[in-house]
């Protein structure tokens, strides 16, 4: 089963290695959704990994290259003119604009306060916490979500509940 439901992943989600690992695995064949991000989201992710989480620059570069290589269709361009039309938190207007441009109905973010419903509703977009989005994906195909969790567990050598 391949799902073609487009979703924007915010930088805070992409920078969280464990959450993004699971989300990106669920976007691989057979995918449960189509991930999207902008160049600006990727830059913000890189800055967070480098400056806040202390990743080596080579690893940040490698991760970005892998995101682009594995999901070439994810990049959203041409959203900049929309930024002046949205009313959510100014530092995250580019995220909502990218979602509108890519015709995404969902932005997955930890920063729900930056995406008030009053700013999203006119555009038909909703912001979901990663746990809520993952719960939705589980209801769509719990077997695949479970399989991906077991793959992560095998890679990490830890029980499933401790990785999320």
Name some characteristics of this structure.
164 residues; PIN-like_dom_sf; 5 strands; single chain; Putative nucleic acid-binding protein; 5-stranded parallel beta sheet; alpha/beta
Biggest pleated-sheet summary: 5 strands, parallel
Q: For the largest beta sheet, what order do the strands appear in spatially?
A: 3-2-1-4-5
The name of the CATH architecture is 3-Layer(aba) Sandwich
Q: How many distinct domains? A: 1
| Text of the CATH class | Alpha Beta
Secondary-structure element series: EHHEHHEHHEHEH
Rg for CA atoms? 15 Å
Q: Average pLDDT value? A: 93
Stretches where pLDDT falls below 50 for ≥5 residues?
A: none
Strand segment tally: 5
Number of helix segments? 8
The computed structural class is: alpha/beta
Predict the CATH topology: Rossmann fold
Please write out the topology.
Layout (H helix, E strand, L loop, with lengths): L5 E4 L1 H4 L2 H9 L8 E5 H14 L4 H14 L4 E2 L3 H4 L9 H9 L4 E3 L8 H4 L5 E3 L1 H27 L8
Parallel strand pairs: 1-2, 1-4, 2-3, 4-5
Helix pairs in contact: 2-8, 3-4
Q: What does this entry look like structurally?
A:
By secondary structure, the protein is α/β, with parallel strands linked by helices. The chain has one domain (6-130): 3-Layer(aba) Sandwich (Rossmann fold), CATH 3.40.50.1010. Helix content is 52%, strand content 10%. It is built from eight helices and five strands; from the N terminus they run E-H-H-E-H-H-E-H-H-E-H-E-H. It has helices spanning 11-14, 17-25, 39-52, 57-70, 80-83, 93-101, 117-120, 130-156, and strands spanning 6-9, 34-38, 75-76, 106-108, 126-128. Strands 3-2-1-4-5 form a five-stranded parallel β-sheet.
